[in-house]
Amino acid sequence: MIPLAVLGRQRYATPVESLEPKPEKVRSGTFRVDRKEALRKLAAYRLADPAAFVLSWVRAGAESDATWIHVALDLKRIAVRFDGKAWASADLEDPYSAFFDEAAASPARHLVLGALAAFRLGARRAAVSSWGRGMALGPETVEPLEVPAGRTETALEAVWDGAIDDGARIRMFNLLSTSCGMLRAQLSISIMSGPDRTIPPLAAADDGSLVRFEEGGLRGLLQPPLNPDAMAGKAHLYTGGVRVSTVDWTFHPAQAEAHLDDPAFALDASQSGVIMDDRFTRALKAADAKVPRLLELAVNGHEHGYGQWTRFLFERAGLFSGLLGMLKLDRRRDADRVLAWLAGKQHEYERLIAWDTTTGAWLRSTAAALPLEEPQDPVLKKLYRAALYLSVNGVPLSIERLDEIAKFTTVLPVCRRLFTNMQLDPPVLWCPRPEDPAVRIRFHGRSRWFEDVSSFRSVGPFR
Known about the structure:
Elements: E1 5-7, E2 10-12, H1 35-45, H2 53-63, E3 68-73, E4 77-82, H3 89-93, H4 95-100, H5 107-120, E5 125-130, E6 133-137, E7 142-145, E8 154-159, H6 166-179, E9 186-191, E10 197-199, E11 211-215, E12 218-223, E13 233-239, E14 242-249, E15 257-261, H7 278-315, H8 317-327, H9 334-342, H10 347-368, H11 378-385, E16 389-390, E17 396-397, H12 399-409, E18 412-415, E19 429-430, H13 437-442, E20 447-450, H14 453-459
Parallel strand pairs: 3-9, 13-15, 18-19, 18-20
Antiparallel strand pairs: 1-2, 1-14, 3-4, 4-8, 5-6, 5-8, 6-7, 9-10, 11-12, 12-15, 13-14, 16-17
């Protein structure tokens, strides 16, 4: 069964065969459209946020096989320049005709879509020049534009009579910064003629917990979810390396953050969402099939780095173990900020903390939701036995071991503090975050919090 997806505020379920009789073809033919009227309607309804016109123009660069794209966000002008192949004469002479020809894969369609949205923001005119040839666009007109000869680049431009609204310019910058991570081209932005800012591609610094794949025109990247405790994953959908929309999606056997770029995605009438058709379903299935590999990489990376993490904690236990207990930290990252501060903000320790609060937290959340019996799937079995936790005296603990302790003691003993050079049997789980999924979900009603060593011993064997 294909999971339910959510797009914006509208919910989409798996398409089913209609119970109505299927239509029969009676006659085919053509009809004329009043182009001016069509453009007015399109300008009103395409792109929910007109500031997203810059994304359409960046897609034009991607479709032109650009290796670099530069966006200038100036006081009265927005310009997108890029290299790549020169535009065809037909795309320059009448871009609006190219826009209405949906069968043609033309960057002019992105030009027009962006221009119509720019006019909604008050732009006086738009223009395109490509390798020495150019045209100026009004809301319903196209006129020749004089362009200096010899330029081997393409430029798209929108011009205002007055200053561009600051809020719109900020939205453009934010959209460019967060929506272009799957671009093959290098993207840079300048604001008000300031210095260029290069926007790095997604996960430029791979920490070993990412999965990249390409198949049948689809490019994908999977990573642990930004919210480790999320009940559903996220699928970010792109065309031309630029994000169109994001949907909630249930992945198996763990939740994930998927970035999927496919030029064959069909967009809805607003050009702000991907239609849930066969291409959409194929992309999500391809991503779902890679989740076990993502989980395996994360488990392997966690096991590799857990020795460093343990040494880091216990080398500094004398400094902060009491502090952690006294603070009674309730929020996920409070303890980690304390640890980073006490560690002197050393780069290696910051990396370990970042891993533990993202990938490590995701593994613990996934493991906490495993069935109570030992899983048979090899990857899930590895997760079940992985050292995801520590005892208060530094003994690595897995979900399998926590299950054994809870069964032996009838409750899972838990403490916020660390205690060095102490032997405790059975082990006591060190848990600086009270909302940890093992305590909150798997051992709900079967855990008991302790504050110090004397309370451990007063309980005896915890039975």
